[in-house]
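Treating backbone geometry as a discrete language has practical consequences that deserve illustration. Part of our work consisted of pairing the sequence of a single chain with a tokenised description of its backbone. We regard such an encoding as a compact summary of how the chain folds. The amino acid sequence and the backbone structure tokens for this protein are reproduced below.
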Amino acid sequence: MAETVKQKAEIKIEGMHCATCAVNIEKSLAGLTDVTKAQVNFGTETAHVEYDPSKVSLTTIEKAVKEVGYDVVNSQVTIKVGGMMCATCVETIETSLKELPGIVSASVNLGTEKAYVTYNSSLSGVDDMKKAIEEAGYQYLGIFGEVSEEAEKIARDKELHDKFVRFTVGFAVSIPLMLAMWLPLPISMHELGYVMLVISTPVFAYVAYPIFRAAWISLTHRMLSMDVMYAMGTGVAFVSSVLGTFGIVLTHEFMFYDTAIMLASFLMLGRYLEGRAKGRTSEAIKKLAGLRVKTAIVIRNGVEAELPVDDVVVGDLVVVKPGAKVPVDGVVMAGKSYVNEAMITGEPVPPLKTVGSRVVGGTLNTNSVLTVRATKVGKETMLARIIQMVEDAQGSKPPVQRIADVAVTYFIPVVLIIAALTFIVWFFLLGSTLIFALTALISILVVACPCALGLATPTAVTVGVGRGAQLGILIRNGEALEVTGKVTTVIFDKTGTLTKGKPEVTDLIPVGISEETLLSFAASVEKNSQHPLAQAIVRRAESRGVNIEPAEQFDTFGGKGVAAKVLLEIVLIGNRAFLQEKGVSLPAGLDERITALEQDGKTAVLVAVGGQMAGVIAIADTFKDTTRDAITEFKKMGVRIVMITGDNKRTAEAIARQIGIDRVIAEVLPQDKEAEVKKLQALGEVVAFVGDGINDAPALAQADVGIAIGSGTDVAIESGDIVLMNDDLLDAVAAVQLSKKVMGRIKGNIFWAFAYNAALIPVAAGVLYPSFGITFSPELAALAMAASSVTVVTLSLLLTKYIPDAKKGR
């Protein structure tokens, strides 16, 4: 009996804190059947495992590590693949990659023509993947990001040119051959057959070679692909013609060399058109990649030098001239200029950048010189992370894709059975001619196409996610896209999301003094405080040019208020209780005005000077400009709106009333927001949570869809399923509208793909012939097959022009 071959793997582990962690992992691994050896090195954070790969998988081993509370670190790579035509090509490549040792997951996207692979680098490498892809009959075009756009375009153009030449040669020969069958010629049919054989054989071999090669590779891998069916269809046509030429079994009426070549030509034409259309699905990501800057002007040792952007390090001073792109993320150290950030945030109005402002790599400096200190370079820049996020999203599969995946699995065997039964029924049971039955069989093999089904989802996801990026809406994955379209309830965090997160003075009610004097006394005291309300008062005083006097003996009183001496007068600032405690009484009617302010959701700050009431300053965290419009738009869509806040119930309800929100969850601590999301989910709601990602990350994670709004902050990008690059709540509405549109297009594509096959396969089988005399020639079947795929891709490409209603007119 042959000895079992053991596999040795080195697994990188994250989260170990001490030697006992290593022991716990070893115990968990040793508990697996057919793991013969497990050693964990705490110092190097690795596990060396020996196991029987025929009985236990690497995924099971990694699961054992995760079950005891640790994470496994795997390598990831995105590979560009050429030569894919349909959903079965995807399945073939995924299967070939997964057969390699150490492959944790392999997902191939037909629309972007990329393979996303997670793997253990101790067992397999990129060279192994390259070999597997090429042995499966496809082109390895390099690792995404490492292959230049020029090189990728050359490879793509070469592939398209090859298809173009093949179908051009095919039509140039098949059309005259077809005419020769119908026009009177001075030679016999017998002689014509030999002439056609000599002309057709090299042309057919040239045009159909890619189809037969792919079919052979599929069969050697024990897989049925569309190329197998196409090879059968065109092969039967050509072999029948040869047999008819020599009078072996078949007669001269079976000579359809023109049909065989034309079939292969239409197949090449379809793949050419499909390839051109698919190339356009990734235009958005190409535009983002095109924003990358190749060189930067860096100040080193007091001298300006132009360097490759890869040589810029954190801390370098970078000079950005007017009309140039900002090369890296950074902070403005000198200069003042308007910077166009539309390509990142989708916001068309360039903001003014001054000393201390943050700038993002890839944005355009418009009118003046800026000196920027680099804070993030290379793969850490905002642009690089956005590109990676969009790439990951385009490579993901929404749950609806499972319908297509299941259908494709059964599609080819079912079609082969239908084709065989059609031939048997027509020829043996109904007694039709052999040529009729053979034509029906060929037509079925050629017209049946899961390609449209395979392209329905990935092309729409790719284009939709790319369109979102252009609009400043980053969608993390296909699942988020699908779930967002089903949202029934949207929870808004109040502070920093519905509001600006920056309190402002809204009302001034002086008592016996002017507004300027009231502001002067209050600001003179509050300039010593860091409280947000105090800073709001100081900002208002500065904006009105009010004098801010020196304050002495500043003191605070346990959250109730503050006191100080200004211009020899004792100034008290605080709430009702604080002033009453200090013996200050309220004038008649003032208490009612304070209550009215509080009912409007404002905070009333009372000011007393020299023991007498001096006035009231109302402060509120004002709403963002688009808050009310966003709430209105969501309501039009039939979505329930909930506001969650730490404010007391009366204040929260007053704030909610102003913007049209009916339901409020008040007095909620940041750590309890997650529990509130769970409560709504338990009631059957599909919940989207909109927050800034700073103190509500658990709630964003718990929600069915977390929408992080934070002008593209690091925290927001890490927190949300959807990230809004522009600090605009209407973009949250646009995100939902875009998701609904993309999902609608996916469902439409899938319906079209199913409907196409459901309608045309029966026609090709001849079901209309007895009643209407309608048949489907193989040439028309090939044309219809090509049209189906191109139609699906074209429908997806229409999303590139889609503008959500929330973004129209802005």
User: Anything to note?
Assistant: The radius of gyration is 35 Å.
